[in-house]
Design a protein that fits this description.
The protein is α+β, with helices and mostly antiparallel strands. The protein has three domains: 55 residues; 49 residues; 56 residues, Nucleotide Exchange Factor Grpe, Chain A, domain 2 (Roll). Strands 1-4-5 form a three-stranded antiparallel β-sheet. Strands 2-6-3 form a three-stranded mixed β-sheet, with no helix packed on it.
Length: 182
């Protein structure tokens, strides 16, 4: 009978252990389910943030592209507005040259317009490249031809300028076309 009692007690203990395990197992599943739902909510929240950020970036890209296009369209506006007085001065000079008898007065007017235009270019950062008497610098000058040097000091130096060169804020916008003495 003692053996039977031990068997019964073992059965009761194992059934209690199974019940406890099942209870723990269902609690574990409930906890895992809660964690899963929590992770699913976080995923949905992160996905929503990603979509909003993506849309915001797309709007930013479109806005900056539009601003760039607008800037490109109106970039020259300031320059054109400031060049119009020079054009007006040329028109007045042409009209007055038709009626003028004194050529010196016409030349003086043209010189004033020329100086006005050169000042306008200086204000915009455009500078003339110095060339005559300078050694040939291929970063600034384009040699068109070589001629015999008029004197020994002019050998390898620029003796004439065919077309002036210009720099805009230290960037060459047109190379000076020059003649070099040999």
């Amino acid at each position: 009978m003692v053996a039977k009692d031990i068997k019964d007690k073992t059965k009761k203990d194992s059934s209690k252990t199974k019940a406890k395990k099942l209870g723990r197992s269902s609690k574990k599943k409930t906890i895992e389910l809660e964690k899963f739902e929590e992770l699913a909510e976080k995923l949905e929240e992160i996905n929503d943030k990603y979509l909003r950020l993506s849309a915001e970036f797309d709007n930013y890209r479109k806005r900056t592209l539009k601003e760039k296009m607008d800037l490109t369209k109106t970039a020259g506006e300031d320059i054109l507005i400031n060049i119009l007085p020079v054009v007006d001065n040329f028109e007045r000079a042409i009209e007055s040259s038709k009626k003028a008898e004194d050529i010196n007065a016409v030349m003086e007017g043209i010189d004033l317009i020329y100086n006005n235009f050169k000042d306008f270019l200086k204000q915009r950062g455009v500078k003339e490249i110095e060339a005559v008497g300078q050694p040939l610098d291929t970063d600034l000058h384009e040699a068109i031809t070589n001629i015999p040097a008029p004197d020994k000091e002019s050998k390898g130096k620029i003796v004439d300028v065919i077309e002036k060169g210009y720099v805009l804020n230290d960037k060459v916008i047109r190379y000076a076309k020059v003649v070099v003495g040999e």
